[in-house]
Amino acid sequence: MKKNILISGGSGFIGKHLTDLLIEKGFSVSILSRSDKKNTANISYYKWDVSNQKIDEAAVMNADYVIHLAGENIAEKRWTAKRKLAIIDSREKSTQLIYSVLRKNNKKLDAFISASAVGIYGAVNGEEVCTEETSLAHDFLGSTCQKWESSIDFIENLRIRTVKIRTGLVLGKEDGFLKKLLPVFKYRLGAVLGSGKQYMPWIHVDDLCHIYLEAVVNEEMNGPYNAAINDSATNAIFSKTLARVLGYSIWLPNVPEFVLKFLMGEMSKIVLTGRRVSSAKLEKLGFQFKYKNLEEALRSCLIK
Questions:
Q1: Triad 102, 105, 110: Cα angle to 5°
Q2: Strand 162-167 relative to strand 111-117: parallel, antiparallel, unpaired?
Q3: pTM for this predicted structure
Q4: What average pLDDT does range 245-270 have in this prediction?
């Protein structure tokens, strides 16, 4: 009998790619959705309402694994006080809702695997290479990720293997991080942001999905893992590489920091700061990235 994997956030960019991979590998997939959806031959849908703490418990009870991707997009809107609360609540409360079903029914999973982000190391600039043992930050990005991961610890306390995937900037075909960049860069209006020295830890969506698959099948995986390429790509390198892939050289001057701060407010920290991240812990398990070269990764995302 096929093992069933329940995915929250399964209708999103990463979730869709992951669903296809898991089905290809012989798993059955269930998806938590906020709206009614018809089941297909390969996917079962279950309703949940995080804000009102409601969920179809059968979704969890029928699962062998849970992959938890749900959470408000941190870069979608300006960080007002209301928006910040929504970002945090969407992560904490969704985890708490699944935990409540597990605890109430004494349900055992083979593993609970959750998204997290390299933002847990903070909105900083510097040469330090962050590992899973690096001290965590207490700015908004850092504290949000820490609260996110702390909510997962309750599930670990149920003696369920838990894995936290600290993800970098995800690259995919005209989606993910590239979705906002391509309209500008395709018109040859791309530019370096701020000083351009800020690091941009990235990962191709195909590699990220295979990391989640590895977390399912590899029982050695436990705790946090960085999921980003440690190639020291800065914003300047990334921007110039993307422009080159699109057939031109950047000709515009750098976008000044004050302009980005004016347009984006506090959220500008996402593009004006960065960190170097090591994936050595993951690679020691034998995981091999398909895309470690930025230009190759970008070209694969732009193939029609």
A1: 45
A2: parallel
A3: 0.95
A4: 92
For residue 66, the surrounding DSSP H or E stretch is: strand 65-68
Angle between helices 178-186 and 235-245 (to 10 degrees): 60
- Position 253 in a domain: no
CATH number of the domain that residue 216 is part of? 3.40.50.720
Give just the sign of the alpha carbon dihedral 64, 214, 19, 90. Answer: positive
Q: Is residue 176 part of a domain?
A: no
Instruction: Give the C-alpha distances (Å, rounded to integers) separating 277 from 1, 22, 94, 126, 281.
Output: 39, 27, 27, 11, 11
Quote the domain boundaries for residue 22: 4-170+202-228
The total domain count for the chain is: 1
DSSP 161: -
User: Per residue in 268-302, pLDDT tens?
Assistant: 888 899 899 999 999 999 999 999 999 999 999 98
Q: Decide: residue 171, CB within 10 A, 0-12 exposed, 13-18 middle, 19+ buried.
A: buried
Residue 304 banded pLDDT, cuts 50, 70, 90: low
Is 302 part of any domain? no
Instruction: Answer whether residue 197 is part of any domain.
Output: no
As a whole number, mean pLDDT of residues 198-205 equals 96
Question: What residue ranges in 84-153 does DSSP mark as E strands?
Answer: 111-117, 129-130
Instruction: Find the mean pLDDT for residues 256-263.
Output: 91
